[in-house]
Design brief:
single chain; mainly alpha; 66% helix
Length: 107
Amino acid sequence: MPRGDKSSYTDKQKRQAEHIEAGYEDRGMPASEAERRAWATVNKETGGGKKSGSGRGHPESHEPSRTGGKRGGTAAASRSPEERSASARKAAATRKRNAEESKLKST
């Protein structure tokens, strides 16, 4: 079975990955990175593909899904308002520059 083959996953695992991927994409992540992270989360929670019989009966852990929410915001909370503002200005400039570059490439 080639790497990346999803045939050994259950329908439930595939639905989980789609849902997690959609959440990442809603937050602005590129589709390829969102898919990679979604399957990594499903693997961590369920222990990988389950169709073949190996690993059946093991409990699922939803801790990987919760971890992301816990981690969010800690970096910003430890910085001063001036540092956060400077970071926001830099991010806005990067987004503007990337938008202009993609506009030039599409024409």
